[in-house]
């Protein structure tokens, strides 16, 4: 663990009835789990749900008091399989992961879980990373809900609704013996708000109780003939039970006037954007009061045909607001309307864009078009006509630099890719396979390295087809992070390469924990963790898998060594995969931990050395070759103010953490001698001070002597 | 293409009591503390009896990319408004940008609307990777962004908030909050902002200073900090020891006799070359400049270029030069200043060197150097055992003395192999230029300016020399043409623009095609 403390958040989890909880959406869910008597929680970290995992990891005390088991699962498949504890036992369980990537990984377990069904409430909290700012491919989790027949909640994005959805989800799961997905958009996860807290509930049955009283029921196991019965049961028992629950508990909400001739059906998650658009069109006030008839689907799957048909009754047209592609909800509604012979006009995709995020402007345009077509009289005149002249704003498309994300200041992965660039300069370009994680930023400038990314832990697997018929020929280089390695890279990538006698090079980027998601511990973390077994060696694991050629680099900043090792891996005659484990701690998380410690030590009078780098601007010639191998945020350009010079020179600002990459790159690439490393010693020892003063005097004497004999201008 | 902004008809309607939702978006560069700013604004709103909601699309650890934070707030009337979760084109009341180009990006994305949006932006620059990696000056022009701000923003508060924060010992989130409070775009008084800063508990005094300063500047009560422009930077101090005063004034006399127009550049140049070598070197430099002047007339553009680039050519970057700079007293002072070493702290200084065989042999006397360069066995030995990075501690006596010894070779420089090759190169360039200057001064000026292409050390230097040679090779193709100077400038720009040299290849091809 990066040893960050979530003590403040943990206190919020202890709140009881009558108190007001303040915080972000994902934390509200965490609290709601405890209020609803959850028995165990698991999951795999990843934006936007990492915070849930982080806070629970720091809440061991309160969790054990309540008898709740928490674990950080090895993968989303592990997390989903963990829900098996709710199959035979009436224990509520919840797991969480980022979707759609996590759901892909989980889908085998999800199918099995959904087939047998559950006794205790099983909740899967999905961080749906869709839309602008997303770091993954754009697909909908909805398809998984449909194919596996699990239910999906998509509550309105405010804290009370989200918290209510947790309670509804557990209940719905138990009543219909079906796992329930609770879908949260990335912004809902980070939304800051309030809700009235309740007391936390101990689970009626803990996982320990279950172990002491084991149960099995052949009917719930996925094996013929039970599997055929499961399918029938899904359709004849579980689905009707879920639909009845949706109606009885009024999960879906109706707003506006039921008499309206037009209506809108929206997913709960997009409710706020729809209301804002209606407000901007003069059709709703800022509290959401409106005459427009709206059916808000807080449960997006399954739909209840009777409810939909009743809503459409007597209407001229309805609009389905459904973000993402394909338009599953619209298709189902169209089918219902056709089957029951309704003639209401159905609008959805077409009026609104087929794909992409439904932003405010998209919604205003779409709803505007819908009302102009089907209910023009509803739109206030002021909204459709204007005398205002359009104002021409200059187009800045070509005036702004792109600002893609990149490695942080001092990142230990930067020197790995600088070394790769240097190897390529020498040996030519290679096919490079990338993986998920911070190291994927190597695809961006200035490195521009990497051809594909096929999934977490699958970097080396995605290069497995590349068997060079010529043993002396080029090899592929693939990257995988320590997180991806333990997630499934050990078997899918490394084991696969060993088994198939793959000759390619695999670089395992180890930054001491799952750094990109906030520093969660994994098997090879270097820190001691009270509740986890850490410090398991990646090298030993690879050797156990049968890797013969393996090198451990314990200081990635040594660019020369990194480059030479890579070169050796690309040229050695040893058969089988060549594995390099490149390890140095994530600098962002390290600084968060170390900086306050060092500041305190310096304040307490202890000897502290703070390194940082600098550039001698008189020696720098302004070629910027160093930056083409770096991209460090603290290394930038500045004007010299010297009329004799044309180009800005390199400069390192105060944010430098002294990682050493600049100097190492300048050395390995034989760039220039402009870089220097300065170490600032606070509270130096007396011996040190005396020595420095003595040396200073001699140096000073030499300098004065020379200055007395030359004309100096510096 | 210009973006036609449709007249805003989709305006938000107020609540029954006249209460309005205020929308605020903050565009930050990852790692700038946008989260802190967001929390402060929400807290101020809530302390003033408003309901507020914030969201962000910040990855947990993904840095340096552009990040958006979004806040909505509304006077509390007992009901919860339906707040939106993301900023919408044409619907942002206040846009806070923590860097100039991010302010520009906000405009490009439609978040700054005439007649509506107060734009609060810091005007300092954080260069993007693409701006840093160009071999020349890749930084984007800011003019368009300022112009667009003037058109798009209803109210504009733009000054260097980074400098304000730094001067107060704080970070930019404090000065951004100050500028926001001072802009008057939010209906909350100054004290309520300051209370929130106090309650945050960390670095309160510095934050309050930065806040107060930015507040006053935004209100127009104080001037914004002036960025030190290049011209205003203090020049290095000239130090002429007693024993050299006479010979130095002889140089100054020669300088004074030259045309007024070239005094500034030649003055700097002569100081630089004398500092680099000795007073005689200064005379050698002035000889060159005078030759250019003899062929030139007012406004002496060619002579100014000669003054600039002859100084560059004479002050080539060799080991002696580097060692000299690294061992100077003024350099130690500058480093201390740059990395901020306090009086009770010590500084340890490590230099990164990697001299190859090439640098080693060229620092030897001519004959010996040539002999060594032709001995493959010695080169192989050097490459195997000595060609590696060296870390030299210049705060230690042994390290300092090592560099000091190298720098002490300065008086012998004229006898070394490197000097020989540099002078041959410079003389060829300069005499060719003077020859062209007889007929085409504009082309000669561009030829002088081509020396800009030579920079760097080792491979970078070799690449620079090769680019220079290729660009200069076009002189014979171009001379006599009316547009020769223009083409020469284009060739140089192409060479500067790209690392691989593809653009230069293309440009040379074009020149060849019309020259034939």
UniProtKB/TrEMBL annotation, chain A:
GO terms for biological process: small molecule metabolic process. It comes from the Bacteria. InterPro entries: HACL1-like (IPR045025), IorA (IPR017721), THDP-binding (IPR029061), TPP_enzyme_TPP-bd (IPR011766), Transketo_C/PFOR_II (IPR009014). Residues 448-581 form the Thiamine pyrophosphate enzyme TPP-binding domain. SUPFAM superfamilies: Thiamin diphosphate-binding fold (THDP-binding), TK C-terminal domain-like. GO terms for molecular function: indolepyruvate ferredoxin oxidoreductase activity; metal ion binding; thiamine pyrophosphate binding. Transmembrane segments: none annotated. It holds the Pfam family TPP_enzyme_C. Keywords: Metal-binding, Pyruvate. Signal peptide: none annotated. This is Indolepyruvate ferredoxin oxidoreductase alpha subunit.
TrEMBL record, chain B:
Residues 30-216 form the Pyruvate/ketoisovalerate oxidoreductase catalytic domain. Keywords: Oxidoreductase, Pyruvate. It comes from the Bacteria. Residues 263-472 form the DUF6537 domain. The keyword Translocase does not apply. GO terms for molecular function: oxidoreductase activity, acting on the aldehyde or oxo group of donors. This is Indolepyruvate ferredoxin oxidoreductase beta subunit.
């Amino acid at each position: 663990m990066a040893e960050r403390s979530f003590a403040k958040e943990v206190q919020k989890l202890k709140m009881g009835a009558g108190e007001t909880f303040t915080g972000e959406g994902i934390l509200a869910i965490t609290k709601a789990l405890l209020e609803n008597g959850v028995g165990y929680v698991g999951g795999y970290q990843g934006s936007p749900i990492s915070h849930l995992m982080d806070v629970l990891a720091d809440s061991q005390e309160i969790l054990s008091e309540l008898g709740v088991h928490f674990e950080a699962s090895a993968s989303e498949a592990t997390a989903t399989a963990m829900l098996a504890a709710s199959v035979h036992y009436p224990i509520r369980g919840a797991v969480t992961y980022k979707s759609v990537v996590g759901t892909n990984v989980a889908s085998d377990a999800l199918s099995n879980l959904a087939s047998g069904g559950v006794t205790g409430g099983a909740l899967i909290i999905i961080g749906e990373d869709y839309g602008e700012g997303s770091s993954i491919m754009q697909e909908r989790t909805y398809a998984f809900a449909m194919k596996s027949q699990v239910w999906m909640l998509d509550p309105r994005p405010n804290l009370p609704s989200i918290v209510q959805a947790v309670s509804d989800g557990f209940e719905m799961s138990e009543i219909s013996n079906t796992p329930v997905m609770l879908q949260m958009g990335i912004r809902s996860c980070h939304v800051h708000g309030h809700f009235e807290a309740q007391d936390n509930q101990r689970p009626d049955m803990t996982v320990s109780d279950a172990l002491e009283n084991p149960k099995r029921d052949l009917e719930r196991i996925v094996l013929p003939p039970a599997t055929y019965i499961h399918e029938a049961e899904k359709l004849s028992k579980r689905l009707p039970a879920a639909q009845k629950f949706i109606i009885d508990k009024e999960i879906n909400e109706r707003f506006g006037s039921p008499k309206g001739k037009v209506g809108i059906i929206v997913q709960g998650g997009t409710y706020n954007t729809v209301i804002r658009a209606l407000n901007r069109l003069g059709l709703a006030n800022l509290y959401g009061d409106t005459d427009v008839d709206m059916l808000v689907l807080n449960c997006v799957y399954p739909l209840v045909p009777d409810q939909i048909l009743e809503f459409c009754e007597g209407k001229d047209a309805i609009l389905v607001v459904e973000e993402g592609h394909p338009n599953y909800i619209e298709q189902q509604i169209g089918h219902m309307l056709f089957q029951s012979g309704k003639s209401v006009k159905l609008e959805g995709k077409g009026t609104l864009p087929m794909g992409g995020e439904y932003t405010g402007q998209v919604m205003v345009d779409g709803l505007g078009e819908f009302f102009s077509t089907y209910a023009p009289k509803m739109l206030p005149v002021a909204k459709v006509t204007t005398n205002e002249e359009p104002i021409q704003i200059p187009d800045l498309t070509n005036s702004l630099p792109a600002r893609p994300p990149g490695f942080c200041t001092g990142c230990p992965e930067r020197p790995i890719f600088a070394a790769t660039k240097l190897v390529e300069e020498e040996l030519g370009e290679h096919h490079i396979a990338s993986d998920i994680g911070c190291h994927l930023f190597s695809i961006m400038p200035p490195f521009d390295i990497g051809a594909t990314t096929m999934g977490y832990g699958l970097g080396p697997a995605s290069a497995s087809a590349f068997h060079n018929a010529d043993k002396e020929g080029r090899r592929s280089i693939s990257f995988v992070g320590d997180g991806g390695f333990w997630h499934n890279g050990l078997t899918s990538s490394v084991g696969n390469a060993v088994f198939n006698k793959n000759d390619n090079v695999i670089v395992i980027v180890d930054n001491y924990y799952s750094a990109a998601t906030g520093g969660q511990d994994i098997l090879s973390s270097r820190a001691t963790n009270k509740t986890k077994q850490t410090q398991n060696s990646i090298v030993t694991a690879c050797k156990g898998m049968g890797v013969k050629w393996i090198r451990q680099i314990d200081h990635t900043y040594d660019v020369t060594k990194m480059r030479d090792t890579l070169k050796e891996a690309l040229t050695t005659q040893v058969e089988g995969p060549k594995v390099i484990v490149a390890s140095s701690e994530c600098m962002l998380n390290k600084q968060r931990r170390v900086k306050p410690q060092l500041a305190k030590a310096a304040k307490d009078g202890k000897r502290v050395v703070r390194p940082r780098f600098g550039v001698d601007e008189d020696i720098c010639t302004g070629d910027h070759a160093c930056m083409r191998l770096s991209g460090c945020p603290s290394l930038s350009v500045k004007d010299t103010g010297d009329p004799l010079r044309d180009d800005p020179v390199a400069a390192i600002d105060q944010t430098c953490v002294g990682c050493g990459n600049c100097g190492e790159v300048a050395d390995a690439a034989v760039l220039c001698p402009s870089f220097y490393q300065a170490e600032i010693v606070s509270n130096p020892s007396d011996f040190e001070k005396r020595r420095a003063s003595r040396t200073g005097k001699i140096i000073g004497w030499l300098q004065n002597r020379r200055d007395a004999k030359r004309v100096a201008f510096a | 293409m210009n973006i036609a902004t449709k007249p805003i008809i989709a305006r938000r309607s107020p609540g029954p009591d006249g209460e309005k939702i205020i929308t605020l978006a903050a565009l930050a560069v990852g790692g700038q503390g946008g989260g802190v700013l967001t929390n402060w604004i929400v807290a101020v709103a809530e302390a003033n009896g408003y309901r507020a909601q914030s969201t962000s699309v910040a990855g947990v650890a993904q840095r340096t990319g552009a990040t958006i934070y979004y806040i909505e707030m509304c006077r509390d009337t007992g009901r919860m408004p339906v707040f939106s979760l993301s900023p919408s084109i044409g619907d942002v009341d206040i846009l806070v940008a923590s860097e100039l180009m991010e302010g520009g990006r906000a405009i490009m994305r439609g978040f700054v609307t005439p007649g509506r949006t107060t734009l609060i932006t810091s005007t300092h620059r954080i260069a993007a990777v693409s701006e840093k990696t160009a071999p020349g000056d890749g930084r984007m022009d800011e003019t368009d962004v300022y112009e667009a701000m003037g058109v798009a923003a209803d109210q504009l508060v733009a000054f260097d908030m980074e400098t304000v924060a730094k001067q107060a010992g704080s970070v930019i989130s404090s000065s951004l909050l100050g500028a926001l409070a001072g802009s008057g775009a939010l209906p909350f008084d100054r004290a309520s902002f300051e209370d929130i800063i106090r309650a945050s508990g960390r670095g309160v005094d510095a934050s309050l200073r930065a806040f107060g300063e930015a507040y006053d500047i935004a209100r127009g009560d104080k001037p914004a900090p002036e960025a030190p422009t290049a011209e205003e930077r203090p020049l290095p101090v000239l130090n002429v020891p007693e024993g050299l005063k006479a010979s130095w004034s002889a140089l100054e006399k020669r300088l004074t006799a030259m045309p007024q127009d070239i005094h500034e550049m030649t003055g700097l140049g002569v100081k630089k070359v004398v500092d680099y070598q000795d007073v005689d070197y200064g005379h050698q430099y002035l000889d060159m400049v005078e030759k250019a002047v003899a062929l030139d007339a007012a406004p002496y553009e060619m002579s100014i270029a000669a003054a600039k680039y002859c100084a560059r050519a004479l002050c080539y970057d060799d080991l002696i030069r580097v060692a000299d700079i690294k061992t100077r007293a003024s350099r130690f002072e500058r480093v201390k200043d740059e990395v901020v070493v306090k009086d009770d702290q010590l500084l340890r200084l490590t230099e990164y060197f990697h001299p190859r065989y090439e640098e080693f042999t060229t620092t030897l006397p001519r004959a010996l150097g040539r002999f060594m360069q032709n001995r493959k066995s010695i080169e192989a030995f050097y490459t195997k055992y000595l060609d590696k990075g060296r870390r030299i501690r210049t705060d230690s006596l042994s390290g300092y003395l090592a560099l000091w010894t190298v720098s002490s070779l300065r008086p012998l420089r004229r006898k070394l192999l490197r000097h020989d090759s540099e002078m041959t190169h410079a003389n060829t360039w300069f005499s060719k230029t003077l020859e062209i200057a007889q007929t085409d001064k504009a082309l000669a000026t561009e030829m002088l300016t081509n020396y800009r292409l030579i920079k760097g050390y080792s491979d970078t230097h070799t690449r620079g020399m090769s680019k220079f040679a290729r660009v200069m090779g076009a002189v014979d193709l171009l001379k006599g043409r009316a547009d020769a100077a223009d083409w020469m400038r284009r060739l140089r720009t192409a060479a500067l623009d790209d690392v691989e040299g593809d653009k230069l290849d293309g440009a040379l091809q074009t020149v060849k095609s019309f020259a034939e």
